[in-house]
Design a protein that fits this description.
The complex is a heterodimer of chains A (267) and B (241). Chain A has 267 residues and is an all-alpha fold. Chain A contains eleven helices and no strands. Chain A is globular, with a radius of gyration of 18 Å. Chain B is α/β, with parallel strands linked by helices and 241 residues long. In chain B, β4 and β5 form a beta hairpin. Chain B starts with a strand and ends with a helix. The chains are: A mainly alpha (267), B alpha/beta (241).
């Protein structure tokens, strides 16, 4: 059966396309500020949110979204105000999130195969309603990133300089954390909480190797993310492979190609 | 002449019993070109951070353009070059993109740059002599060119106060001279107040009107010609204080 003849695959490609573009767009500002693992930390908090949703009988994705936003803001506040070093703040949220998730999942009696769809993604179970939610939140998040691009780029270029000249650096950092949390929650269905950070980091790293400016790196990252999602899903469909992991492996392959290409260009 | 910077009996420390600055008073009038020098760890950068409102003094008061430094409403008039600015992560940020970042506080925060902002960015790049390099990634330029790009970033904000913290770090002697000459020219042409902080002041000595030596307290404040010959090496000066 041709891939596009399947309603499941059309919905999966739609969700994959949105997440493929959004994850690197938001991840760009994490990677460029050397906070590549923040997405991973938020993913682990999102897992606690899924668990809380299962325990309280609330939609796990919405519970994950709320937990991820709180976790993302907590990481940013701990990093910027708490006097806790960035990596320690991340570790604190990271381990607390995963431990809390395991305890809550166990309490909910959901420590079973169903949990796998949140850990490793379940893009083939995306419904029309899911796709509408992913598309709506994805468009709003992308619009926010586009509107804030110059301001966020200024904090990437020189955060202290931006602070000195009176830019609202704290609010911008919280915005990035919030956008990252929304991205994690949306990406959960596509690649799962354990692999979500990969889609936020790998396309950006690949783009950075072959780009010629910051703006081109940003656009290329989104193009690589989109390509990884669509190619990964296609390979997964025809080779009968797990879609989320296949998408991430395609993104890793893009990096493996871009790194030597960039080096050859003598950058 | 109104004051750009005023420190009144300022003391500061990062921990109990560890005073980095002690009873420092300093007044810089608008339009002055002042070099602040002293040994590493002498409190120069801390002094600067208090001036910029990034730290609050434990005792005394700090004013920027006549307002308390940490709540100053004219911060957008400050052009700042931080010590050893590390730019970005993996993306190849171009000179134009770096300089455009400096225009943000003075222009609008959201959306793309307006035409006037783009013109000012191009003007700042030309002013530091980097026109032909405008679209090259900063990392492909020499240390001296990178510092000039960062000065252009500070200039893009159309500042009335230009603050440079160790701008010659990692720059060869020839580029240090060129940088000093550039700052002198900018000061003369734009009438901007310049605070130049460095552990040594040789490159700018012939351009500055006033030299301030810091080692926890101010140990010298006056024209460079009044500085005892031996003190031209700051480490000697402070060893004897």
């Amino acid at each position: 059966m041709p891939m596009l003849g399947s309603e499941l695959m059309r919905l999966a490609l739609g969700a994959g396309a949105v997440v493929g573009v959004l994850a690197p767009a938001v991840g760009f500002f994490l990677v460029e500020r050397r906070q590549s693992l923040v997405g991973d930390g938020i993913g682990h908090v999102a897992f606690a949110g899924v668990a809380a949703g299962l325990l309280l009988d609330v939609a796990p994705v919405l519970a994950a979204l709320a937990a991820a936003v709180l976790g993302g803001i907590a990481i940013e506040l701990l990093r910027s105000r708490g006097g806790t070093a960035g990596d320690q703040a991340l570790a604190l949220v990271f381990y607390t999130g995963i431990a809390l998730g395991v305890v809550l999942v166990s309490s909910a009696g959901a420590l079973n195969v169903g949990l796998f769809q949140y850990l490793f993604g379940s893009i083939l179970t995306v419904t029309r309603g899911d796709l509408a939610l992913v598309a709506a939140l994805g468009v709003v998040s992308l619009a926010a990133v586009t509107l804030l691009f110059r301001a966020l780029a200024a904090t990437v270029v020189d955060e202290e300089g931006a602070r000195v000249t009176g830019l609202p650096v704290g609010a911008l950092n919280v915005s990035v954390a919030t956008l990252a949390a929304v991205t994690v929650a949306l990406s959960m269905r596509v690649v799962g909480v354990l692999l979500v950070a990969a889609l936020m980091v790998l396309p950006v790293s690949a783009a950075g190797r072959i780009a010629w400016s910051m703006r081109s790196a940003f656009l290329l990252a989104m193009a690589i993310g989109l390509g990884s999602a669509l190619v990964g899903l296609t390979i997964a469909y025809y080779a009968d492979l797990p879609p989320g992991a296949t998408i991430v492996l395609v993104a890793a392959a893009a990096f493996a190609v871009a790194a030597p290409a960039g080096a050859l260009r003598g950058r | 002449m109104p004051l750009a910077v005023e420190l009144d009996a300022v003391s500061f420390g990062y921990g109990p019993g560890q005073r980095v600055l002690e009873d420092v008073s300093l007044r810089v009038a608008e339009g002055e070109f002042v070099a602040i020098a002293g040994p590493n760890g002498g409190g120069k950068t801390t002094l600067l951070r208090i001036v910029l409102g990034l730290e609050r003094p434990l005792a005394g008061r700090a004013f920027l353009f006549g307002e308390p430094a940490h709540t100053c409403s004219r911060r957008r008039e400050v052009g700042y070059l931080a010590q050893r600015t590390q730019l970005g992560g993996t993306a190849p940020v171009t000179v134009r993109e770096v300089v455009a970042a400096g225009r943000l506080a003075a222009g609008r925060l959201l959306g793309p740059l307006r035409r006037r902002d783009r013109e000012l960015v191009a003007e700042a790049i030309e002013r530091v002599g980097l026109g032909p390099e405008a679209d090259r990634p900063l990392r492909t330029l020499s240390g001296g060119q990178q510092q000039r790009a960062l000065i252009a970033k500070a200039l893009a904000a159309e500042p009335s106060l230009l603050v440079l913290d160790e701008p010659t770090t990692g720059v060869d002697a020839e580029s240090q001279e060129a940088l000093a000459a550039l700052l002198h020219r900018l000061h003369s042409e734009l009438g901007v107040t310049v605070l130049y902080v460095s552990h040594e002041f040789g490159a700018v000595e012939r351009f500055v009107e006033r030299l301030v030596l810091v080692r926890r307290t101010l140990v010298f404040d006056g024209p460079p010609r009044d500085l005892p010959v031996l003190w031209h090496d700051p480490s000697h000066a402070h060893a004897r204080v």
